[in-house]
Amino acid sequence: MRPEDVRSVRIATAPNETIAVMWRDLLADEGIVAAIQPGGAGYSFGHNLLNEQYILVREDQAERAMQIIDEFESDEGLILWDDFDDVS
């Protein structure tokens, strides 16, 4: 596959740069290279940590990347503090 044949697609919109970096790193841990593209109305005024950020991945990895983020954002598989009520 030639570089010009690789197409990137937007798979998610993070509410801010901190979440976007977390999602990008999560995808990287799963072998998916992701890019962050700043967005939102405030972006035209310069870089802002509070602007929404778009997550871009290769088109052929988009479905898996969306699944990874969805699983991470759901309560499934997460350890919640409520699970430790009886720890002493």
Structural overview:
The chain has a domain at 1-57. It is globular and about 35 Å long. The model has no long low-confidence stretch (mean pLDDT 82). The chain is 28% helix and 20% strand. The chain is α+β, with helices and mostly antiparallel strands and 88 residues long. It has a 3-stranded antiparallel β-sheet, with helices on one face. It has 2 helices and 3 strands, in the order βαββα.
Summarize, please.
The protein has about 90 residues and is of the alpha+beta class. The protein contains two helices and three strands.
- The stretches of 5 or more residues where confidence is low (pLDDT under 50) are none
Order of helices and strands: EHEEH
**Largest sheet at a glance?**
3 strands, antiparallel
The portion of residues forming beta strands comes to 15-25%
What general outline do the C-alpha atoms trace? globular
Structural class, from secondary structure content? alpha+beta
Major sheet strand order: 1-3-2
Straight-line N-to-C gap: 56 Å
Give the count of helical stretches.
2
